[in-house]
């Protein structure tokens, strides 16, 4: 069915989606995060590619019917797995506008709207995070591509220190690029190093025993290394801890090193005076990144890469061709500042949410998440059947279910089994991690809708499922009391 040969049902389809959105959003706070039967609903999609096609409305009906059953309410307030935000009302509506207008945000010529809003968004984000206004930046698909973008700029700088333009000549003939970081480095930074031809296995670990950066070890390594790239971590993903970024950056700057700061969610610590000190010193970095689809609560996908000197981005990512525009200072070509040439106009949602709620609104959202995390951490500390495994300085609470009569040996397996049940149960969605050699839950609070009651439900559900699982075990497997 050629859409040109049948009546245009665009508006009817959009109205159908808007009608569905009404009920969907009303239920989002109370409906199960994951409904029973979601796997089967997902599998209902399939079959051969249709020859004829079902038509606009029929396809959208099917998508809504099976799609809603198959999806996970990750935008809702009780989704605490990984680090996933929801969408603020303004961001959600702006994202719909983004699809309506369907702009290619490669550059100003293709969309003055997208390019101007990206300029404004980058400037507002630098301001929001307390980073120098003269830095530049670009919106990316997320923190992984933002890490890639920042580290590509770092690699370009490093090549320059050796007299080589890496974007032109490649890495051949150059020594191994020294990369130094701590045990807090995120896998996405390693992935970026893999994509950049540096190698994910080539990071020199300068950690203290707790995994955080040891500035003294960094100093020793930098003295040997020559020009080097240092990755500092503002917000470690398992428990939300921070490298001592100011000390790391000052040590690096005293030597010949580029500092890249990964603040995928941790950069938001700078929005509240209660936590700003955790991410102090990021302003000394050469590149810093964060995510939009985490704590900014804009829809997938969106991240930000900021650099002190955007010329490095242009060196790496510019793609000159006769049919493409040239960048001018007041008319940036964002397709020349990051990995994608054609790009979604993510700036519409970023601009709209910052315009709608402003600095004060974002501080309130961040502080609500801090309160929720602190509340849960306190409940865990007071409980006689749960154990806080590490302090929770920001928004992640690393803890495990630990009934008084459970033996150490059974705890990892017990907590993993609770996780399996909790993901099926659907009241809250929270996963485990292994960190410091121990399995524990790590609910992450970044969703603007989550409340203290939602945080309480995490512990209540874990406790309920945990005690049921233990009660249903054969008696022989029970540990002796007091073990
Ligand atoms: C510290 C850190 N860096 C980078 C990432 C990668 O982010 P994304 O999934 O948006 O690519 C994450 C994701 O959780 C993260 O926590």
Report the helical percentage: 40-55%
Any idea of the CATH topology of one domain? Aspartate Aminotransferase, domain 2
**What is the CATH class designation of one domain?**
Alpha Beta
What small-molecule ligands were found? pyridoxal-5'-phosphate
Give a summary of the structure in a few sentences.
It contains 14 helices and eleven strands. By secondary structure, the chain is α/β, with parallel strands linked by helices.
What does this structure look like?
The chain is an alpha/beta fold. Among the domains are: 71 residues; 264 residues, Type I PLP-dependent aspartate aminotransferase-like (Major domain) (Aspartate Aminotransferase, domain 2), CATH 3.40.640. 42% of the residues lie in helices and 10% in strands. It contains 14 helices and 11 strands. A 7-stranded mixed β-sheet has the order 1-7-6-5-4-2-3, with helices on both faces. A hairpin with a 2-residue loop joins strand 10 and strand 11. The chain is globular, with a radius of gyration of 24 Å. The termini are far apart. The C terminus is likely disordered. The chain binds pyridoxal-5'-phosphate. The site of pyridoxal-5'-phosphate (PLP) has 14 residues, from helix 6. Pyridoxal-5'-phosphate binds next to helix 6.
């Amino acid at each position: 069915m050629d859409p040109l040969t049948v009546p245009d049902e665009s508006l009817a389809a959009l109205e159908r989606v808007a009608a569905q959105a009404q009920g969907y959003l009303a239920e989002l706070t109370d409906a199960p995060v994951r409904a029973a039967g979601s796997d089967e609903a997902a599998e209902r999609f399939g079959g051969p590619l249709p020859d004829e096609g079902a038509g606009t409305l029929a396809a959208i009906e099917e998508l809504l019917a099976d799609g809603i059953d198959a999806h996970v309410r990750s935008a809702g307030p009780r989704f605490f797995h990984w680090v996933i935000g929801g969408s603020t009302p303004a961001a959600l509506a702006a994202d719909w506008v983004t699809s309506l207008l369907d702009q290619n945000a490669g550059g100003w010529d293709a969309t003055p709207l997208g390019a101007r809003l990206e300029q404004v968004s980058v400037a507002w984000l630098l301001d929001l995070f307390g980073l120098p206004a003269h830095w530049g930046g670009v919106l990316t698909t997320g923190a992984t591509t933002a890490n890639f973008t920042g580290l590509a700029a770092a690699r370009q700088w490093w090549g320059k220190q050796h007299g080589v333009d890496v974007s032109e000549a490649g890495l051949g003939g150059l020594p191994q690029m020294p990369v130094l970081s701590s045990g807090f480095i995120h896998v996405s930074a390693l992935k970026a190093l893999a994509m950049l031809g540096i190698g994910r296995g080539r990071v020199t670990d300068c950690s203290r025993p707790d995994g955080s950066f040891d500035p003294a070890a960094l100093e020793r390594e930098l003295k040997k290394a020559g020009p080097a790239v240092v990755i500092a971590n503002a917000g470690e993903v398992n428990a939300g801890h921070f490298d001592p970024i100011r000390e790391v950056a000052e040590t690096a700057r005293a030597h010949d090193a580029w500092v890249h700061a990964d603040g995928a969610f941790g950069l938001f610590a700078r929005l509240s005076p209660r936590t700003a000190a955790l991410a102090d010193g990021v302003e000394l970095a050469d590149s810093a990144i964060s995510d939009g689809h985490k704590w900014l609560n804009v829809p997938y996908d969106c991240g930000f890469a900021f650099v002190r000197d955007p010329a490095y981005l242009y060196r790496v990512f510019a793609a000159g061709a006769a049919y493409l525009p040239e960048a001018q200072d007041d008319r940036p070509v964002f397709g020349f500042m990051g990995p994608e040439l054609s790009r979604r106009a993510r700036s519409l949602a970023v601009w709209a949410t910052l315009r709608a709620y402003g600095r004060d609104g974002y501080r309130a959202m961040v502080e609500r998440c801090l309160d929720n995390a602190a509340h849960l951490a306190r409940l865990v500390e007071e409980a006689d059947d749960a154990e806080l495994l590490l302090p929770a300085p920001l928004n992640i609470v690393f803890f495990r279910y630990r009934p008084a009569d459970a033996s150490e040996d059974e705890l990892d397996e017990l907590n993993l089994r609770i996780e399996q049940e909790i993901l099926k149960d659907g009241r809250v969605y929270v996963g485990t991690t292994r960190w410091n050699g121990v399995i524990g839950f790590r609910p992450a609070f970044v969703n603007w809708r989550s409340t203290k009651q939602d945080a309480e439900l995490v512990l209540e559900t874990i406790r309920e499922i945990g005690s049921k699982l233990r009660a249903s075990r054969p008696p022989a497997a029970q540990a002796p009391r007091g073990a």
